[in-house]
Structures are given as structure tokens and as C-alpha cells.
Design brief:
This protein has about 210 residues and is mainly alpha-helical. It folds into 2 domains: about 80 residues, Tetratricopeptide repeat domain (Serine Threonine Protein Phosphatase 5, Tetratricopeptide repeat), CATH 1.25.40; about 100 residues, Tetratricopeptide repeat domain (Serine Threonine Protein Phosphatase 5, Tetratricopeptide repeat), CATH 1.25.40. The protein is built from 11 helices and no strands.
Length: about 210
């Protein structure tokens, strides 16, 4: 009988203990990285790290408008920055709004007038607009400002210049620039095929 009482005491005692254990509360939801950056900017509108973090997140497809909006806000609070203007230009180009793209590249150039990268971006956008003569001016500026320190970039600019000449059916000029591109960067992914294409076109021309 004594053993029965001891057993009942243990069972009911354990039941009482477990009944007093508080129920588990759900873990708080983790904020998204985007929300963290937005709140950081709200707390400190001059938080440069938060702006750049958001701009990186907004590279995702479908986030173009958000990217432009946050870049403009960054300019408002952090001041003029050629890279921010260039990002807006790139984003408008992705959206197919080439005129706005050019406008923001030009704002970037006002701050950094010797940027070969910017001139190349302008040239590529003008190519899409089929403004070939203006594109060629931009590519030549890119070639001038890049100097002799970066053969890979310079080769890329010569290739782009050749593409513009080819679009105007200036095959000899196109060929010359594709050859320069290959000389500077023999591994360029398109210069060789571009050269072969225009050389083939030249071979089809009647003798003069």
C-alpha cells in the first residue's frame, strides 16, 4: 500500500510540475535585410552603408524603380556622387529609357569628366539609339582617357568603336578597330568574330 502512495505522489507531482511549465512563445520574426536598411536610413538619413546595401539588393530584376528612388535619396542626403548618377543612368538604360540614361551619365561626367568608363557607357547607349556618329565620339573619348594602363578596357572600347563603324557599313574602319582590339586584348570574347564578319563583308565587295 505504501508503494502505491509513493507511486501516486510521483505521478501527480510530475503532472503538477509540467502543468506549471510556461508554454513556448513563438520566436520573433527576423526582419528582412531590406527592412533593416530602410529603418537604418530612417534613423539616420546620412547612413551611406545602408544606401549602398539597398542599391546592391535592388539590382534584382523588377527593382529598377526602387533602385532609382534610393539612389536619388542618397544623392539628396550624401551629396553628388558620380557613381550614384551612373547607377541611375544604368538603370534607366535597363528600362529602355535611353534619353534619361544619357542625362544621368552626363551629370556623372560633370563630376568626373575624365572617366573612360562613363564615356563608354554613353557610347553604348547611343549605339542602342542608333546615334552612331555621337557614339563614335564617346568611344574615342573613352580610348583617350583610359590611357595605356588598361589594355583590356582599351581593347573593349576599340571593339565598341568598330561595332559602330560596322553599323554604318564602314567596314574598313570597323576592321581596323577590331584588329586594334585584338592586339590589345587577344582574349576579347567578340573582337575576333566581329573582325571575321567584316572581313567577309569586305571580300564580297566588287573590286574598285
Amino acid at each position: 500500500m505504501r508503494k502505491v502512495y509513493i507511486f501516486l505522489f510521483i505521478v501527480f507531482g510530475l503532472g503538477f510540475i509540467f502543468s506549471q511549465t510556461p508554454a513556448e512563445t513563438p520566436a520573433p520574426k527576423t526582419q528582412s535585410l531590406e527592412q533593416q536598411y530602410l529603418e537604418a536610413i530612417s534613423a539616420n538619413p546620412k547612413n551611406a552603408q545602408a544606401y549602398w546595401g539597398l542599391l546592391k539588393l535592388y539590382k534584382a530584376p523588377g527593382k529598377e524603380d526602387s533602385r532609382i528612388k534610393i539612389a536619388l535619396k542618397a544623392i539628396q542626403f550624401l551629396g553628388d556622387d558620380p557613381e550614384l548618377y551612373a547607377i541611375i543612368g544604368d538603370t534607366y538604360k535597363d528600362k529602355g529609357d535611353f534619353s534619361k540614361s544619357i542625362s544621368y551619365y552626363q551629370l556623372s561626367l560633370k563630376i568626373d569628366p575624365s572617366s573612360s568608363v562613363l564615356y563608354n557607357r554613353i557610347g553604348l547607349t547611343l549605339l542602342k539609339m542608333e546615334y552612331y556618329h555621337q557614339a563614335e565620339v564617346a568611344f574615342k573619348a573613352a580610348i583617350f582617357y583610359v590611357g595605356n594602363e588598361n589594355n583590356v578596357a582599351k581593347g573593349r572600347y576599340y571593339n565598341n568603336l568598330g561595332v559602330s563603324f560596322e553599323a554604318r557599313l564602314e567596314h574598313e574602319l570597323a576592321s581596323a578597330n577590331f584588329k586594334k582590339a585584338l592586339k590589345l586584348d587577344p582574349t576579347h570574347p567578340f573582337a575576333l568574330s566581329n573582325l571575321q564578319r567584316v572581313e567577309n563583308a569586305l571580300s564580297q565587295l566588287p573590286p574598285q
